[in-house]
Design goal:
- 4 copies of one chain form a homotetramer.
- Chain A contains 13 helices and 15 strands.
- The first copy, chain A, has helices at residues 14-25, 40-50, 59-62, 76-88, 103-116, 130-140, 162-167, 171-174, 176-187, 204-208, 279-282, 284-300, 308-326; strands spanning 5-10, 30-36, 53-55, 69-72, 92-95, 120-122, 147-155, 191-199, 214-221, 226-232, 240-247, 250-254, 262-266, 269-272, 332-333.
- In chain A, the strands form 3 sheets. A 7-stranded mixed sheet of chain A has the order 12-11-7-10-9-8-15. Chain A has a 6-stranded parallel sheet with strand order 3-2-1-4-5-6, sandwiched between helices.
- In chain A, helix 2 (40-50) links the parallel strand 2 (30-36) and strand 3 (53-55).
- The longest helix of chain A has 19 residues, at 308-326.
- The first copy, chain A, starts with a strand and ends with a strand.
């Protein structure tokens, strides 16, 4: 039988559970070796369910020489320090987004990863969505010629709890960060300047917490193209995730995913299915694909699909967008 | 200014009014000259509204040497005798479908038309629908290769009054006749054999009147292709008119027409517009196109788009379908 | 017969011809009375084709007491002076967009129209498109709740000649002006601030002429909503005209219009029709609807659907957008 | 950890491999215990790949008391005898379709299964397709009222090899059998009478082998509804699998599945993705769902979703359809 990659999952919250379960059931070349969580009951529950050892101390995972790689699924503030420790321990690293909110801390991770020569993949799972991947490939193959306009619509089905909003770092670094990665992925170019306008239209408490819940971000790319992202924390009809790339030879759009392809006709109207409710449903296959891609990159010693630099750039854009929004929409250069 | 075709409209019922109004407003090369209806108040109302002379006796129209052509929009039983009189009077003829329910009477019309050398067009307006016309053209141009399967879905939004059903000649000659024309138009081949099954599922009184309200008709074409038509007297969501032609190199489908192209997303669902309600809405442009085509054929002395033979064949198929249905679905040859 | 509105058309260019033909053939309550064009052969050709009197001097139309209304279809620089003269002559006025590029001149028109008590309608034909009209009505009826985001995609199939670009006043006042009207129409609110970024990606000569051919404009509305418009002078697949309004209770989108509703399946792919090529095809029915609406407003002494103030506001927004774009995308308040 | 169902797979051909792989990777409550194939190298290859024991003699599986259930994936002629042996051995049985071509042999299976009290599920995987399942549920819940018309379009992307056609039992029992199951599933009623017309339009050699490659089957249901199936052995654009159920309160349709939801616009046209190529792609998730359903039924001692009687009825309909087609389309009662 082929060699499998032995993996420890650090963090047994929602996303840690998701990865751990997929690694067991959907990633044939992975072998889940251990689970850790600072809250031991969470580690225990998941470890027992999946039949692997568990611990409250992730250092046990880092110190286990039989473990090849880690999935860092702990709270955001621990991503960069654990990344550095894991790199020093020689583990390949899959890190949930964002690496950090602080550019210097991210750069320190990049340095350490480079020094250690380990693989590093950031959890921008949407790149593995079948629709966005296809758009990326068509654009890359020249199918729409030179890119002129990139558009991303990204709306959550419901706003997170206020407690979450307060520690989230704000909509740009928490939510739009996925879209900042997406526009880089789709355009094949770096974002040089952004301007952002925001408003608090969904829930005034979000505004009182110093954040916005609705925003539009305009982008200028290094290759001359323009872009626009629109976000809302609440689309009552479900998770609205669409993209469009327009260029000199054409345009390609990606529509939402739905539970099925039926159409229902009655005297009241003609009804299609709503988009899948949220990211766990919409990006289920994308999560599995990113996990498989990471495992393959580690086993075959190839580049990861979403490298450490890809974790740095969206944070830079998010910082610029936040500044622009706070200053009423003035254009802000993305720090190089 | 270019010469216009002077036209008399015989019959001022629903379809006569429609043609008369279009001839005045939407057919630039037509000049409405007169209206007749055996029920004089109807003729008077329409004539006064449109500012043309009117009469209870259509012979006044046939005897008017300044009139070039007639639209026969009177009751079905008068179509063939008036067609013959009009041909003898040297008028070009646009005749609503069906020419007659009796094959011999239709053949008599064909003979007289041929002898008189006048133009004859039958009111199979659906051939002028932008969707079906495009399907016809793609098929004719070889776009789907050899035709293998022709499918027509044709459902009315609501059943006609029972009084109408009783004198209609039955669903096959009254309703399916349009579909029999359509399959000839789309396949480019003659129907050789049909088998039909019917049921009374919408309104039991239709069954008591000796008719069916739901049916499926299977067809064999001279070129070897197969076909199927499904009909219902009542689709509660509106007029359902779709076709599909499948062949050795592909398939082409035509969907319904809707009031607009919007999509509406709410927490309850995703809603598209229902099909246009009935034939006056759906085929409005098709009526105008068939009228213009007739006027052009008369003025330019070219073939009409839907000739007298095209009026004969669907009746032949309808007669065979009715026999098949009455005999429980046995295959019946279409009389040659 | 009902009274008809006697109309003189001033300007026999492309748009003047379109209106004159429609007034004759598609607007039952209109009577085309005269045509004028400073280039007399153009006036003559159109007048003779349509069988009405013609002149090189539009004052003949203004001085004709039998004429009730004028359509001002002459060059943009003449719109405001002729509007003022026509108002003084007591004629109802349909004026092509924009009224002027200069706010003071537009205000002078508004004053004169008010003083004269004549009807004034601006040629924002897209409000009469069946799709956008439906979106407007759903939004107005509260169908999507409070408006949060308004999106307009508006791309021409091909760039105009450079000679036209040079005198057009720039993309914002020439092309985006329709979209500025549309966002007001769809949002039901005034635009307070805009920021615009532009690029020259289609044709460098447009840049040399001091204009851009691709742009994205972000908008802030008085009711708190945000908006975004994206424009391109060249969409190789045809005229791309879509809108989307997103709010607290849902979202409504309007897709393009196509020549028909067929789908074509072959070994190479599944093909749908491209959007209708350009505005004459796409907005044909909208032109007819706006003409009928104007005639009705004049005959029934009701408000026009697109009043003089609706002609002023988009120019104000366009001026702000131009300034923002020239200053690299800084936010600019719309002059009140 | 929960108890797992220990399963032996009999037959290591295409479908046996598919089930064995899914049981290992996608059915958490299943444990693959053994593989058998009369061609030992096939059994060995699959057994070694999946790390389970293998044998050329399926009796080893039947005699292994640690094995709870079997998947019968061997050649069609062995389905009924192995079913009987497996039932006698007290194994739960998942049997690929058809159970047999001979009604008496199927009935013998039903008897034995009943006597043994084991679970029996037939491999009508399409019932587990997300689209058809949703249509079934809407119809069952009364969403379209009384069923009037059931339509199934079912076309393969390419004809099987002639060698296969010759031993297939003919199109009705080999290909349409899935559609006969589908119409029962969707209508919720038994088929009482069928009439079928067929033609050889794809490949004349299929005709020489005594079969047809294109057919249309009309159905009458016990509840009064009508139905129609159209089949082709070759749709060059891919696997075409659509259904429609029309009734007194509405209609519901299910469209094909595609690789993604993108739309591509160029000067040449607007392109959507083709349907997924064939059943392995289209019904991948449906296979997994049916396997999970079988395992659940066995572990929880509940009814299987597709019982032995569901394996009998489609063969009865296929036999009637074949007779009708051979007799030129006369209606044939389905044997009760």
């Amino acid at each position: 039988m082929d060699r499998k990659l032995r993996i420890g999952v650090i963090g047994a919250g929602r996303i840690g559970k998701l990865h751990a379960n997929n690694l067991v059931n959907r990633v044939p070349k992975a072998e889940l070796a251990a689970i850790s969580d600072v809250y031991e009951p969470a580690a225990k529950a998941l470890g027992e369910q999946l039949g692997v050892k568990y611990t409250a101390d992730y250092h046990e995972i880092l110190n286990d020489p039989s473990i090849d790689a880690v999935f860092i699924c702990s709270s955001t503030d621990t991503h960069s320090p654990i990344s550095i420790e894991a790199a020093k321990a020689g583990k390949h690293i899959f890190c949930e987004k964002p690496i950090d909110h602080d550019l210097d801390k991210i750069k320190a991770v990049l340095d350490e990863v480079k020094k250690a020569g380990v693989k590093y993949q950031v959890g921008f799972n949407r790149r593995f969505d079948r629709n966005f991947k296809h758009v990326h490939e068509v654009v890359k193959a020249g199918g729409i010629g030179d890119v002129h306009i990139v558009k991303v619509t990204s709306r959550d089905p419901e706003a997170p709890p206020l407690s979450y909003v307060k520690v989230s770092g704000g909509i740009f670094v928490d939510m739009t960060i996925h879209d900042f990665d997406m526009v880089r992925y789709l355009s094949g170019s770096e974002v040089e300047e952004v301007s952002a306008v925001g408003a608090c239209l969904v829930n005034p408490e979000i505004g009182e917490a110093g954040d916005v819940d609705t925003c539009i971000i305009t982008l200028k790319f290094a290759n001359g193209a323009l872009g626009v992202i629109d976000n809302s924390r609440q689309a009552v009809y479900g998770y609205d995730q669409r993209v469009e790339v327009f260029g000199s030879k054409g345009c390609i759009t990606a529509d939402n995913e739905t539970p099925n392809n039926t159409t229902y006709y009655t005297a009241e109207g003609v009804t299609k299915e709503k988009p899948l409710w949220f990211f766990l449903e919409r990006y289920n296959d994308a999560f599995i694909a990113e996990e498989n891609a990471f495992v393959d990159a580690c086993l075959n010693d190839t580049e990861t699909a979403v490298g450490a630099f890809d974790g740095l750039q969206p944070v830079r854009i998010a910082i610029a967008a936040k500044e622009s929004c706070e200053k009423g929409g003035i254009p802000v250069k993305v720090q190089g």
